[in-house]
Specification:
The protein is α/β, with parallel strands linked by helices and about 220 residues long. It has a single domain, classed as LmbE-like (Rossmann fold, 3-Layer(aba) Sandwich). The protein is about 40% helix and about 15% strand. A 7-stranded mixed β-sheet has the order 3-2-1-4-5-7-6, sandwiched between helices. The chain is globular and about 40 Å long. The mean pLDDT is about 95.
């Protein structure tokens, strides 16, 4: 991993960034890189109350503090309703951040079972094309999100197979601590998004690559 890069993490909802790339975010920041988190949608009306929305924003802020993130933006799109936004508007929202932040690395959700994840992935693919500021992007990679990514229908929908694993052995406790901030989202005990499951997945990805703990990504585009 190269040092001192501008890293854009696009998260469909508050918590996806930590579940998918929390250890990598902390590692980049520790190495002197600048990380910006763009959260596309939130738990807001009509499906959720304003209080629930404010709670998730507070949880995200606490998680970002633990990860070391100071630059972020929340778009005002209700969760599960990203598809109601005209596609050109969503593309332009993400492209605006890409143009302004001019990242070297872009991490986005894998196109999995959650429709919001698929729509955000599609828009990131448009916003990161190698034209304009997109020419400066060195890596575009998709992260996995516990529960959602692993619920794709095998061989009918795309299966997540990492071709890049980041060693987060020294940052697993930071990832777990940040994950615990999302009390409204993290399940108890043996749930698919429990702390135990987060730890187990990181241990599994790590052992696949010879680390104690890792985070898996699927590289979409890379230049060198």
């Amino acid at each position: 991993m190269t040092f001192k890069k501008r890293v854009l993490v696009v998260s469909p909802h508050p918590d996806d960034e930590t579940l998918g790339a929390g250890g990598t975010i902390a590692k980049y920041i520790e190495q002197g890189s600048e990380v910006f988190i763009l959260t596309v949608s939130g738990h807001m009306p009509p499906l959720y109350s304003n209080d629930e929305y404010e709670r998730t924003l507070s949880e995200a802020g606490a998680a970002f503090d633990i990860l070391g993130v100071s630059e972020y933006e929340f778009l005002s799109i209700p969760s599960t309703m990203i598809g109601d936004k005209p596609i050109h508007e969503l593309n332009n929202m993400i492209l605006k951040v890409v143009d302004n932040f001019n990242p070297h690395v872009v991490l986005c959700p894998y196109p999995d079972r959650h429709i919001d994840h698929r729509l955000v992935f599609d828009s990131v693919m448009v916003a990161t094309r190698p034209v304009g500021s997109g020419k400066d992007i060195e890596i575009v990679a998709a992260y996995e999100t516990l529960s959602e990514t692993h619920w794709n229908a095998p061989h009918i929908e795309p299966n997540f197979t990492p071709n890049w694993v980041v060693d987060i052995s020294e940052h697993i406790e930071t990832k777990l601590s940040a994950s615990k901030c999302y009390e409204s989202q993290i399940s108890k005990s043996t749930g698919a998004r429990s702390i135990d499951a987060i730890d187990a997945l990181a241990k599994f990805r790590g052992t696949q690559a010879g680390f104690n703990y890792g985070e898996g990504f699927h590289i979409v585009r890379m230049i060198g």
